[in-house]
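Summary for the steering committee. One of the milestones for this cycle was to obtain a three-dimensional model of the protein with zinc ion bound, which we needed before selecting residues for the alanine scan. The sequence and ligand used are listed below.
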Amino acid sequence: MSVDRKQGAVRASGSGIKVTCPHCEKPTIVRTSEKITRQTRQAKLICTNADCGHTFIVVVEAVKTISPSATPHPEVRMQGPTLKHAVARPVSA
Ligand SMILES: [Zn+2]
């Protein structure tokens, strides 16, 4: 995953998602993290730059399936992979 914006950035690493401070763009650390829904998690982050000290909230949401689950949960509703060859055809009797 890679989401770069004018201020701050989110990028994946080998051990998790790294979020930089939207103000000074230095690394942050997660102070607390809690489940909001089955697909959404909220975390409080603090900037590691002592001169900045920004503390803020981020929300991480599962939004799109790349490869379907073998054990799907009925409450999970996500955009699925694009099925380019799935075409609706009239049923002939
Ligand atoms: Zn900062």
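Key point for the committee: The CA atoms of residues 24 and 52 lie 7 Å apart.
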